[in-house]
UniProtKB/TrEMBL annotation:
One example GO MF annotation: oxidoreductase activity
Highest taxon above the source species: Bacteria
PANTHER family attached to this UniProt entry: ALDEHYDE DEHYDROGENASE (PTHR47495:SF2)
Domain (Aldehyde oxidase/xanthine dehydrogenase second molybdopterin binding) ranges: 1-36
The species this protein was found in: Candidatus Cryosericum odellii
Protein's recorded name: Xanthine dehydrogenase family protein molybdopterin-binding subunit
Amino acid sequence: AQGEGFALFEDTIIEKGQTRTKNFSTYIIPTVRDVPEHEYIILENPEGTSALGVRGIGEVVMVPVIPAVALAIHDATGVWVRQLPATPERVYRLLHPDVQ
């Protein structure tokens, strides 16, 4: 869900050097209704150098999400999203550059 949030929802707005997205009423993150159902496959592979034999996986599963979303939008519309998040408004502006 975190990668989907970066790709589709989360946007830090800065105006005149001041952050305008200071809380969750203005900094939108995905909820359970925004994220499709996932299937998880867990493979045990202990990490030998950490104290508990564990490893982090959070960042690894986030990496492919943004390019996958950008490619899906391109496949569906023919336009490339080059600014995140890829909100419906941004995609609409890419499809209709003459509309203000």
